[in-house]
Amino acid sequence: QGPLEIGPGCLLSGLTPDSSPALQGCPLRDVVLQGHHVRLHDLSCRVFTLTGRLDDWQSPVDEATYLNVPWAQFFHQTGIREGDLWDAEMPRRSHCLLNARLFPVLHAREALGLEDVLWLLTPATVPSERLARWRAAWRMSWQELLPCVDREAELGARRALFFLQGQRKVRRVLLGHQDSSLLPLTRSAVHEGYHEAMLGTLDEVASTAGDAGIAARTLACIAEVLGCMARGEGGLRSGPAANREWASAFRRLESGDIAGGVRELATERQKWMSSPALLVRAARHYEGAEQILVRQAVMSSCQFVTVGPAELPPLGHWVQVVCPARLDLSGGWSDTPPITYEHGGAVVDVAVLVDGCRPIGARVRRISEPELRLVSLGGTQWSEAVAELVCRELEDLQDYCQPHAPGALLKAAFICTQIVQFPSQKPLRDQLMESFGGGFEVHTWSKLPHGSGLGTSSILAGAVMASLYRAAGKAASTKSLIHAVLHLEQRLTTGGGWQDQVGGLTPGIKIGRSKAQLPLRVEVEKIPVPDGFTQTLNDHLLLVYTGKTRLARNLLQDVVRNWYARLPSIVQNADMLVSNAEECAQALRQGNLLLIGKCLDRYWQQKKCMAPGCEPLAVGCMMDALQPYVYGQCLAGAGGGGFLYVLTKAPRQKEALHQILAQTEGLGNFSIHSIEVDTGGFSVEVMGCNPK
């Protein structure tokens, strides 16, 4: 607590904030000032020592210095005499700094402090009573003092100081958006019994930050402390977070009351500290609370959604939207919240036709009945319905935020496009009749298998929202749809980033970018390629279905947990994902297949670093078999299964690769598909009453 003037050549140790007043206005240079815990039989006390950096401790008085000046000069300046420091019977040649009784320990009438040694530095500026007070104190030499140092108290004080500094580091790192890992400090605090102090500091940061992004990271740190306290017992960290005892705190966070929500979480936490199983469950609920705040941070992107008026299609006329799939060529995971708004992201995407067609689509029409008909078709728009659901009451929409509930994505789309107000006092029937004179029928389809890695769900959400807007007499730009899908997926609670909708809703080859800031805003830049290079890509890109469905259910949660822990390898990998995306974009501008292939291979290594275990054994065998024939290859999306895309050295290698894989053991069912860059982008078409 300054201002303090600490010059060069100084060492200050063992001091507390109580020492600040004595140090103010006292210039220090080339001195060693220390506080010590001393035990004299049953009496504990604090003793301060002061020496010069240049002093020789064992040389005789006539040849040595104290406080960097000759002893004779020191005696003259302070009025201290040799008899004050050494017994008369001690030979003068034995007088030295080591055995000089300089340091006050006890006083009969007054408490001693730092000022009782600091006056030795500037004796001319202090009252003459200071010398008398010093003489009246019982003093000890360094030689006498050292055996009395209370080592247990000394180490305890240093431990307390370490964690006091640690708590300040926690505040500095979290509030300053720094990429330092707090995990070593967390583990140390738990091991040394300072977890309560750490939890208190984290509670304070989360409740006072006033920023959903900072608060989310802080709650993740609390989950880490609780997980460390379980010491590897109590079950898996990933799991449900739906205990009703935590519901009130969750509701506060959902309502935007971060401070109140954090306080309620802390109160509830105290009931879950008695066993490893309870600690792990508490950690899960803190991660659930963190996800609420991440959703709120990402939903700031909805301010970039602008919707304008359009002609209302006639009753019964279909609005159809068909979309390409997307290939992520570099940078994926950097678009995933919270990485994308804490670190910044860049992803190179290509919109592609699969086997010559756009595989994802939706169509919507207004109907006279005031209800919502939700229909899922088979693989194409001409297929028969495989699932149908009719919503006539608002209550039928209340599970829109449960991703596995029937029609959840479509329900969320109606709410996010504000065709339906939810929650509302006005019944669904009245809302639909007043605004549209009836209800809506929605059909959706995808030719791609579940877990393909080609961005199906996000692109389908974009198709549904585009068709809903148009059928309701509204129009939204592609940029608005990209941010609208981000908003929808947060409401749906599936999370996810922005690369899928950028890839499928924006035509051709492009790079999407987001800065390390909130509100989250995505900018898309088209990548110009040399004349004829698009056809070259079509001739050299192939899609291989691995036959493996992605099984890594907790993949996203694990990646986010590692990011919040700021593991150095993950932070470095995030940097490399973004730089590799920029290199890939440059290789595409040059039309250099060899460099593009190197970016793909590098990207696959980066994906495996981000999400270990995303390469099934059979997929590894497949990639090994193809490696001599390709410039580069990578599993699409997060990995773990789905589609593998390859950039072949020779053009039009579909049959050749099929023969190679057919002769490779242990691959199971696979299939190879042609892909083409879709330079046209998704289409919105108002049709008649019969879509065929």
TrEMBL record:
Please name the GO terms that the record assigns under molecular function: ATP binding; fucokinase activity
Chain ranges of the GDP-fucose pyrophosphorylase domain: 1-107
Per the UniProt entry, what is one GO biological process?
A: GDP-L-fucose salvage
Task: Pinpoint the GHMP kinase N-terminal domain residues.
Answer: 432-502
Cross-referenced InterPro entries: GDP_fucose_pyrophosphorylase (IPR012887), GHMP_Kinase-Related (IPR052203), GHMP_kinase_C_sf (IPR036554), GHMP_kinase_N_dom (IPR006204), Ribosomal_Su5_D2-typ_SF (IPR020568)
Q: Which Pfam family is one of this chain's hits?
A: Fucose_pyrophosphorylase
Coiled-coil regions listed = none
Is Ion transport one of the keywords?
no
* EC number, as in UniProt: 2.7.1.52
Q: Which reaction does it catalyse?
A: L-fucose + ATP = beta-L-fucose 1-phosphate + ADP + H(+)
The UniProt keyword set, sorted, is: ATP-binding, Kinase, Nucleotide-binding, Transferase
Quick check: keyword Kinase in the entry? yes
Q: Tell me, in a sentence or two, what this protein's role is.
A: Takes part in the salvage pathway for reutilization of fucose from the degradation of oligosaccharides.
Family classification: Belongs to the GHMP kinase family.
Its recorded name reads L-fucose kinase
Q: Which gene encodes it?
A: Fuk
